[in-house]
């Protein structure tokens, strides 16, 4: 009999499915719930258990992990008679790994405390590839003791695992991460269009740029997307649009200016408005091409 905590996993999307499967591989008993039948079938094929509802998934769980798109979805699965807070046992640990507003995380922690449920906000960075390979960066907000308890579980999902402060801190750091990633992708996209219009061998140029100071994880991960114009979603424009809204709002609240970030946020919004919201965020290349009169 495993001595590992029993896990309920809510949300089996692009990130949630491989992450939950990595917990199964690590020996955890994982019961999952999502709205898509094929995702539940995928979990059971990997050795997990499917639940028909959030309430069914969380009853008896020691740890509950949520990985859903945004604040409204977190609130939908957390609150209400069929939600996590009404059905989880006292003493359970709720780990929200979604990317949401810091205020939502703080509010959830306060509401959960009244039910005797502990909370960590633990958003991740690394995209679908990082989720599959279990090399995510995990930025955590919450109490130190709860972080220490969750550390072995996090180690089955990622490589860089850091407690950043009290409730909401993980989400604040994730917002900063999304700002950096968006600006980096935009810079890479502009460089690609500049290089192609200049008649340079793009593959060779990106290889040499990747080996110098211009190199980055973004360039390494997205180079093939740029070269092949393959915008199959690893992280959708729609979600990055949501994240840019989070970081610009949070920055306004604390009085931090984001002059470049604000411009990139508008470019992401423009791309989404043109029907590209379902594409990978490397599709920012398409926005630069439209502005430059190049191919799209």
Inertia-based shape = globular
Give the rounded overall mean pLDDT. Answer: 96
The percent of residues in helical segments reads 55-70%
| Neighbour order of strands in the largest sheet | 3-2-1-4-5-6
Number of strands: 9
Low-pLDDT segments, ≥5 res? none
End-to-end distance = 56 Å
Tally the helices: 14
Largest sheet: 6 strands, parallel
Structural class: alpha/beta
Percent of sequence in beta strands? 5-15%
Cα-based radius of gyration, to the nearest Å: 20 Å
Question: In sequence order, what are the helices and strands, one letter per element?
Answer: EHEHEHEHHEHEEHEHEHHHHHH
Characterization of this structure:
The protein is built from 14 helices and 9 strands. It has helices at 16-25, 37-45, 54-58, 71-78, 84-87, 102-114, 127-133, 144-155, 169-197, 202-210, 217-228, 237-254, 259-276, 284-292, and strands at 7-10, 30-33, 49-50, 63-66, 93-96, 118-121, 124-125, 136-141, 158-165. Strand 5, helix 6 (102-114) and strand 6 (118-121) form a beta-alpha-beta unit. Helix 9 (169-197) crosses helix 12 (237-254). The termini are far apart.
């Amino acid at each position: 009999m495993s001595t590992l905590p029993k896990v309920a996993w809510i949300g089996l999307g692009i990130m949630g499915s491989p992450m939950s499967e990595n917990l199964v591989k690590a020996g955890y008993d994982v019961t999952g719930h999502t709205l898509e039948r094929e995702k539940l079938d995928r979990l059971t094929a990997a050795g997990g258990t499917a639940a028909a509802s959030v309430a069914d998934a969380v009853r008896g769980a020691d740890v509950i992990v949520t990985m859903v798109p945004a604040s409204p979805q977190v609130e939908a699965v957390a609150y209400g008679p069929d939600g996590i807070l009404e059905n989880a046992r006292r003493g359970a640990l709720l780990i929200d790994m979604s990317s949401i507003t810091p205020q939502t995380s703080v509010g959830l922690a306060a509401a959960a405390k009244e039910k005797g449920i502990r909370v960590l906000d633990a958003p991740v960075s690394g995209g679908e590839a990082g989720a599959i390979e279990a090399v995510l960066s995990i930025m955590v907000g919450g109490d130190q003791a709860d972080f220490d308890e969750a550390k072995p579980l996090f180690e089955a999902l990622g490589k860089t695992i850091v407690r950043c402060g009290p409730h909401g801190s993980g989400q604040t750091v994730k917002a900063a991460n999304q700002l950096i990633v968006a600006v980096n992708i935009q810079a890479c996209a502009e460089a690609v269009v500049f290089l192609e219009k200049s008649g340079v061998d793009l593959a060779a140029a990106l290889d040499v740029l990747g080996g110098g100071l211009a190199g980055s994880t973004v360039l390494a991960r997205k180079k093939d997307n740029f070269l092949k114009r393959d915008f199959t979603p690893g992280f959708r424009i729609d979600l990055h649009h949501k994240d840019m809204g989070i970081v610009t709002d949070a920055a306004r609240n604390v009085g931090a200016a984001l002059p470049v970030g604000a411009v990139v946020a508008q470019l992401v919004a423009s791309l989404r408005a043109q029907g590209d919201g379902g594409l990978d965020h490397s599709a920012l290349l398409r926005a630069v091409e439209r502005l430059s009169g190049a191919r799209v």
